[in-house]
Amino acid sequence: MSEIFVIGHRNPDTDAICSAIGYAEFKRRTGMPEAVAARCGDTNERIDFVLETFGVPSPRFVADVSPKVRDVMQAEVLTVSPDATAAEALGLMDEHDIRVLPVLDANHHCRGLLSLFKLSKFLFPAANRLVDSRRVLSSLETLAETLGGQLLVGHDAQEEEELILMISAMRIETFTQRMDLFPLDKLAVVIGDRTNVQEVAVQKGVRVLIVTGDAPVESRIIEAAKQNRVSIITSPHDTLTTASLCRSAVAIRHMLNEEFLSFREDAPLSAVRAEAVASGFAAFPVTDAEGRTVGILSKADFLKPVDRKLILVDHNELSQAVSGADEVEIVEIIDHHRLGSMTTQQPILFRNEPVGSTSTIVADCFFRQNVELPKPIAGLLLAGLVSDTLNLTSPTTTPRDREILPRLEKIAGVNAREFTDKLFASGSLLTLKPAPQAITTDAKEYKENGHTFSVAQIEEVGFDQFWKRKDELLAALEDYRRGRNYVFSALMVTDVVGQESLMLVAGGKRFIDRIDYPEPQPGVFELRDVVSRKKQLLPYLTHCLQRMKASG
Fold first, then answer.
1. DSSP 8-class letter at 533
2. pLDDT tens digits, 487-535
3. Which domains does the chain have, with CATH numbers?
4. pLDDT tens digits along 433-474
5. Closest by Cα among 313, 320, 317, 310 to 342
């Protein structure tokens, strides 16, 4: 069964994680068993506190949802070892109607590919190379096994050697003369039940006598063969079939194509498609991180649809979505932010409401459809709601949030105010994280009028840690901005007790000059009564961008 990932934005906050888990639960309870909660970024101390409090595991980490080689490869792979015979390989190909076999060693590393074309050329040489049809490269043990016969007499039967095939289909005088044209110690004589020819071959000391048609071999000939170090194999087949099968006793390591193109199972399809199509190979071994072969890919496999779908929660912009989201089907979006520029190939369920948190919307889904809301999920949705609305004190708070929260409190058995105090005391990013990580933990990328920028938010109790680390935070913010070529990067640090914020901004002078909030120190702005990135800060920053653009 294919999975549908319910997933929040990169650098997920509490609301993104909690709403993803909650909405996946809702979808499973309403007829979508394949819904799986996922995340595309690391959790933080506060998210971990919430998950531990309500006894819910973290969503599955999914860094990239773009179609991979493993999504279309053939995982059930028929393979052969380098020591398998051409007859074994040909039997597999015929039974399963395949044209290429990977040849794997004992460690499952690919040694090469064996194609039906290569086998055919070997077993049926061209007219100008008929001499090759006489050559048999095998051990006598393997030769007997390939024929389905018995090794009645065997001398050095396990050693691989090159034999010359000779069929006795002539008068004995002619046959005797013809034997002298070849080295006797390499001759493999295929003969029926003609004992006089058998006797001559044994007396001459040929390498092996192959008796066809399951004909019995007289004991005197067997004894003479032992004395003359002539091996004897019996074959159940007629002479023509036996001669044909002898050629197929060769180990396939002698005929495999050691030049091949392989791909890693986690390689994006888009990255390998052109190389595969342009190559002359018909199939491509697929390997894992240790180089073991785990699948086979054909050119036709690139045409397979990849059945992976997404439900986005707490965002609706591809710039914030999991990597590869633009290459798979998005079937739903549940969000409470501004509309981005995302487009879809078909109509989808898009629920976007002006409420304080996505968790509010998810809880409302349970309540409106009278779906049972499990106690742990109610606790998570409460955590997402109070985190995004600062326990209903943020200007983003709506009457719907105020209506939903008490219902969640009752089901979860949690006092929202007491839980909020514990939540914001559970971990300070400015205390626990290095500056480069602190400024990106909840950073979001935006695009406005051709400009790309980022805004991050950190919620703290007081500003003491901020002032201690202001310089290193500003330096990290500038490095982050330059590395992504943003027009500016802003970091909003919100005091959840004092209900105000400070803002660090890294960017060009033309933009920073448009900011008219008080600037107590260079690059630091006082945002009194501003606590919402979405409703208060983001509209202001986009207005500053417009003013900068208008000024030329």
1. I
2. 999 999 998 878 899 999 999 899 999 999 999 999 999 999 899 988 8
3. 4-67+307-425 (3.90.1640.10), 429-550 (3.10.310.20)
4. 899 999 998 889 998 888 899 999 988 888 988 999 999 999
5. 317
Q: What are phi and psi of 157, to 5 degrees?
A: -75, -15
Which residues have a Cβ under 8 Å from the Cβ of 104 and sit 6 or more positions away? 79, 80, 81, 110, 111, 293
The DSSP code sequence of 41-54 is: S---HHHHHHHHHH
Are the C-beta atoms of 248 and 90 separated by less than 8 Å?
yes
CA distance 242 to 19: 71
Backbone angles phi, psi at 471, to 5 degrees: -65, -45
* Tokens standing for residue 56: 């819910």
Structure tokens at 471: 């310089």
Element (H, E) at 231: strand 231-234
Contact assessment for residue 320 and residue 276, using Cβ atoms and an 8 Å cutoff: no
pTM equals 0.65
Chain-centroid distance, C-alpha 69: 7
Contact 163, 135 (CB under 8 A): yes
The rounded radius of gyration (Å) of the Cα atoms in the chain is 37
